[in-house]
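Reopening this ticket.

The earlier resolution said the output was attached, but the attachment link was broken on my side. Pasting everything inline this time so it's all in one place.
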Amino acid sequence: MSFGNLVLALSFAFIVHNYEEWRGYESLMRAFHGRLNSKLRDRWVFGFALILLSAVVLCLGLAEWIGGLPPVTIFSRIIVFGLLFNAFSHCFLSVKSRELVAGTVSALFLIVPLSAMAIYSMRRDLGDSAAILLSYVVVSLATLPIAIYGSLWLGYLSKRIISAATRPRDS
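Inline output:
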C-alpha cells in the first residue's frame, strides 16, 4: 500500500476514533479531569474540536492521496506520528484508570497498525532515514498538544461567539 493510501486510510480511521471519543465522552473526561481547564470540558466544545481535527486530517489525507506535494507530505508524516502518540496516550490512560477510556479500541485496532504501516512506508517508499524519522517524532510531540488544546480553545471561542450572537437582546 502506498504512503498516500495509508494516510488516507489513517484519516478515515481518525474519524472513527473521534466518533468513539465522542460516544464515550464521559469516560474520556474522567481520565482527563485534572488536566483539562473546566471551560474545555464542555461536550459542545469537545465536539467542535473533534470535528475540526477530523476535517483537517481528512483534507490532508485527501491531498496526500491525490499526490502530495512536498509540504503536504511533510505534514502527513508529522500527523502519522501525532496520531500514533495520541493512540498510545489512550492506551496509557486506560491502563492507568483501569477502565476502557473512549478511543482506546480504535486506537489499538486502527490507528496503531495503520501508523506503523505508514512509518514502514516512509522508510521503504520515501527513503526516510532514522534521523529524519526521529525529527518527525520530535515535531509531532511538540505539535500534538498544540493541535489538541488549540482546537479545544477554538471550540470554546466559537461557543462563546455563537452564544453571544443568539442571546436575546433587551429592547
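Reporter confirms the inline version is readable. The mean pLDDT is 91. DSSP finds six helices and no strands in the chain.
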